[in-house]
UniProtKB/TrEMBL annotation:
Residues passing through the membrane, by range: 48-67, 160-185, 205-223
Principal subcellular localisation of the protein: membrane
GO CC, alphabetical: plasma membrane
Annotated protein name in UniProt: Tol-Pal system protein TolQ
Job description of the protein: Part of the Tol-Pal system, which plays a role in outer membrane invagination during cell division and is important for maintaining outer membrane integrity.
Location in or out of the cell: Cell inner membrane; Cell membrane
GO terms of biological process kind: bacteriocin transport; cell division; protein import
Record organism: Arenimonas caeni
Membrane topology term: Multi-pass membrane protein
Family that this chain belongs to: Belongs to the ExbB/TolQ family.
Lineage: Bacteria, Pseudomonadati, Pseudomonadota, Gammaproteobacteria, Lysobacterales
Domain of life of the native organism: Bacteria
Keywords: Cell cycle, Cell division, Cell inner membrane, Cell membrane, Membrane, Transmembrane, Transmembrane helix
MotA/TolQ/ExbB proton channel domain: residues covered: 110-238
Binding partners and assembly: The Tol-Pal system is composed of five core proteins: the inner membrane proteins TolA, TolQ and TolR, the periplasmic protein TolB and the outer membrane protein Pal. They form a network linking the inner and outer membranes and the peptidoglycan layer.
Amino acid sequence: MPSALALILAAAPVTELPPETAVAAVEAAASSGELNYLQLMLHASLPVQLIVLLMLAGSLLSWVIIFRKNRVFSQANQEADDFEDRFWSGADLTQLYRAATDRNRVVSGLEAIFEAGFREYARLRQKKGVDGRTQLEGAQRAMRATFAREVDRLEHNLELLANIGSTAPYVGLVGTVFGIMVTMHGLSTTESASIAAVAPGISEALFATAIGLFVAIPAVWAYNRFATRVERLSVRYETFAEEFSSILQRQSHVEE
């Protein structure tokens, strides 16, 4: 025989929850299972915390390099465009040289290559007994030296960016190994293993791997992009040096 309470509950009408109450209940249930990355980091083992902090520092450094190098390359392209416009507009080489040697300006890129080559050419031309070939070779040596310095300036810190991008995934894997080791060690001290006992350690292990990829992907992408821009500017500088050498060669023949 059913009890009186069971009969009362069976006879009571079933009412549906209001839509707002149902949605709130679903959201509350979902929020209770959300992954809190800050709490995951704070409750991670000490080796994993140190590794994550190291990778975050590397990420910050890589982004600083990315923003600085992007500004450097943008400025280098703009300066190259401006100087080529002035150079090929038919301006006098002596006037361009005086503008390049102005103490109130810091020249770089194409203008620095031009300034070094024309300075050496003018110096050798003032000497007696120096033929046109020697003058041209001296100007070419000066331009090659300046070209090497300019390319080295463009490549500055790119090696560090490449190192961060190539090593960050492996550092993240080290954090993953430590997280799994801590989890396995914790299971060895308990009588029964369950998903609830394993999940925190596995989560922090995978979190370290994700941080490593988060650090590596932008660094590798930026390095490849900047390396391509260095190559393009190098070709541009080298082409200008050859064209300017041809102009100096014609000028030395005319003076002879």
